[in-house]
Sequence to fold (277 residues):
Amino acid sequence: MVVPPDIGYKRSLRPAGAVRYSSHVTDRGPDSSAANDISAYRPISRTKTTEQVVDRIEQLIVERRLSENETLPSERELAAMLGVSRNILREGLSVLGQKGLVETVPGRRTRVVRPGLRQLRSTVDLMVRVGDVSLTDLCEVRSIIEPEIAARAAEHAGPEQIGELESIMATLEACQGDPAGHVEADLSFHRAIATISGNALLVVLMEAVGEPLMRSMSLGTSIPRGMADADVHHRAVSDAIGRHDPEGARGAMRRHMDHVRRYVIDAEARDSAGRAS
Fold:
């Protein structure tokens, strides 16, 4: 385990029965990591201990004392630091995992992960799979947010970002005979536009609908001229962003979303008819 500098300590957390967790390092400023800082994991009271384990570690993550991909102390060491049993600690880490704040892999130490993306993506995907949300519903949501994302991208795009979008556009146009490759490039195209918009939440939303989005675009590639027709709209969006034309980008993306929605409705109707026959 890498111990952050300027955290010098060698003391047990609890007077009796506690595991001693020690290290000594120097030369680090005050904003050092909490991963191995014994004082960060002060013992908690016996009431609602699982919730307090969650609150304590979540606070360290929110305060950025624990950063993304940083590993926590071992289960034995962390339980001793917090003054709780290993069972209570496991329950707390499980809750934090469900929140998307940590990831625990058997045989490895728990590490901090970026919150939000995995949980949102999984939730949207599950809602589509169980039938609470249809692909048509998803297209309607995209029709609301993506034209504005494209308009913002046209306002914020820099030369390198425009070049990246053009590169993705070239990949799209080269994948006319490769439906799977076209879908991947299509997803990259829309993610890139969300990133260019400069709004981190819009990027999260685009990531959250990634898998259902792929399904909707896969339906489009099964229809004659689906890819070629979509790329006409992609090109219009890309060109408008490249010339910093927000209204042009908004209108081009709105036409693209209408195009996608028609294809999805058509494909879902064909699928329903096939099941009925």
Notes: Residues 1-30 have pLDDT under 50 and may be disordered. The chain has two domains: 9-112, 118-276. The CA atoms of residues 36 and 73 lie 6 Å apart.
